[in-house]
Amino acid sequence: MTQLFPGPGTPRLARVGPGASPRKWAWPPGGRDAGNYKFRDRWQSGPFSRWCPRRSAMAGKSTLLQLLALLLLGLAVVRGSSPLPLVLNTWPFKSATEAAWRALASGGSAVDAVENGCAMCEREQCDGSVGFGGSPDELGETTLDAMIMDGTTMDVGAVGDLRRIKNAIGVARKILEHTTHTLLVGESATKFAESMGFINEDLSTNASQALHSNWLARNCQPNYWRNVIPDASKYCGPYKPPGILKQDIPIYKETEDDRGHDTIGIVVIHKTGRIAAGTSTNGIKFKIHGRVGDSPIPGAGAYADDTAGAAAATGDGDILMRFLPSYQAVEYMRGGEDPTIACQKVISRIQKYFPEFFGAVICANMTGSYGAACNKLSTFTQFSFMVYNSEKHQATEEKVDCI
What we know:
Layout: E1 3-4, E2 13-15, E3 25-26, E4 37-39, E5 51-53, H1 57-81, E6 86-90, H2 94-105, H3 110-124, E7 143-150, E8 155-163, H4 168-178, E9 183-185, H5 186-195, H6 206-217, E10 264-269, E11 275-281, E12 302-305, E13 309-315, H7 317-320, H8 325-334, H9 339-351, E14 359-365, E15 370-374, E16 382-389, E17 396-401
Parallel strand pairs: 8-9
Antiparallel strand pairs: 1-2, 2-3, 4-5, 6-10, 6-16, 7-8, 7-11, 10-11, 12-13, 13-14, 14-15, 16-17
GO molecular function: N4-(beta-N-acetylglucosaminyl)-L-asparaginase activity; peptidase activity
GO biological process, one term: proteolysis
InterPro entries: Ntn_hydrolases_N, Peptidase_T2
């Protein structure tokens, strides 16, 4: 029997028997399974051209490399045509959108853009619902909530019930960068801010003081107490629980004042695909002193994850924070849902329990596709939000019909 060796690395074949037909080849003892090979119909060049490997190692590697090349090429085409970078924020706060975009254009990160966008709204006191001089609590003091989340590292910095410090989002950024904590609140948050170089100053203005005075003149209506004495629907406090607490079924009571506050929530996707999100607000008018809403709570006010997308919520934080809408929207997108559908699913989920709640959500997936949804009320049928990406070339207001 003649042993043939085509070359280094090539499987060895043997010709069987003297004068055997050249079409009868067999693997030598200890050789590989001949079932992986078959004859060709015609001789080509060389004695082994009749053999065509079905799944040889070299062929397998070549096929795999070709598939990987096509996949990478496809991803490059998709990324090349995607509308990144992206800035998306709640409400028609155009200056905030532009500030976030300028941060990206100047080489800043997604986190930088979120901070700059929110800080602009804090300075401009967007709609009286962000920054100093708005939404006094029942003691007449303006307090701030803010949060910033890095979707690459999953680090979060947040501040709640921040007092006498104007730049709430800046304090949140310092918590993210200089501590291992996530959330600081109240006077302790103020002390931390001072240690980071922020100025302690009064957040009240003539406008916020007038709001509080008028509220007192209306017997402290509306307020957020229940099951107390004196009757909170008629009188100011201080309030105390009755001797035997009446077990009323909780009923959500919507007022016009509830609908008058608008958190800024921002989602930013950098051209490299890195994602960040954040919020800033002064909460709801005439809230109980010490109240913290959804804005500084990761997953409620906002959430970001490079591997899926980001979302931010606005509206009644006491309701929203019970459902973690931003986190839920991101998980819907991780599962393949379109951003608009993800937002709508979140709103529908809350509607089952609180059909009259005031709220909206913005969503963007990792490719830069975006959407929004809101809960339809008699006085709230459309939600406006801002978009700025490489396709629009300017900050653009868009609207969505509430569901």
